[in-house]
Amino acid sequence: MNYRHAFHAGNFGDCVKHALLVWLIRALQRKPGGMLVLDTHAGIGRYDLDAGPATRTGEFSAGILRLLADPAEPLSDYLDLVRELGLYPGSPALARALLRPQDRLACCELHPEDVAALRSTFAGEPQVAVHRRDAWEALGALLPPPERRGLVLIDPPYEATDEFSRLADGLRLGHARFATGVFAAWYPIKHRAPVRAFHAALRESGIRDIVAAELWLRAPLDAARLNGCGLLVINPPYRFEADAAVMLAALLERLGTREAGEGFSVERLADE
Ligand SMILES: C[S@@+](CC[C@H](N)C(=O)[O-])C[C@H]1O[C@@H](n2cnc3c(N)ncnc32)[C@H](O)[C@@H]1O
To answer: What's the whole-model pTM score?
Structure first.
């Protein structure tokens, strides 16, 4: 396990994922019933962008710093949280900030140092459980939640060459156990072929109601670069497609490179 999210915190991929994550949690909270947010690959939760690993790559300068310098209304919910929470909030900190008294957050993380950091961030928080547990195993063990309502964020590091097929298997397993849950899976777009194969696997899975929201900084031709990213959502809440398009347009305007092939899309992979 070499991947450490601290080097990448606040980059454009985080901005896309976290802005849409905040929207998804709020959408589930339109109903009063309690819900579980399961963050299967949680990281350390909060990231110092003024010191430490993030400053070694500086990726956040082309990400969250640009959004904060030129805030857009469709991103205001996410950006307000980033400002309020101080250290750059990863997915667990954003979810924690949004929990209502009736909601719960469960985080899984395997890296020993990262799980220790996450545990200390959430020490004494009865609504938050931190597990040192394999994400793919957790999808079987922790689903369905007793609340029968929930959002599952799956955000692997893509270190392994078979990560896309593990993700497709994980989504099939998670959905089999919790068919009414909302699943959101982040993926990198380096070149098109692995993304096409992943989408095809989901189309063929028999799972209904799947949408993929993507943003590309440039045409995905150079497989050595992170040229874009996507969030695949199963059971997207009402208005996701329309609102995601507005948010992606605002993100692209601020994070775009003006290189050939930049753009965004919100594509339905399977009907309701
Ligand atoms: C991309 S980062 C997560 C970032 C986080 N979701 C956020 O948005 O702030 C992926 C994390 O998954 C952890 N990880 C890798 N393989 C895992 C596994 N099989 N189960 C649980 N965590 C894993 C890594 O240590 C890393 O911290």
So the answer is: 0.98
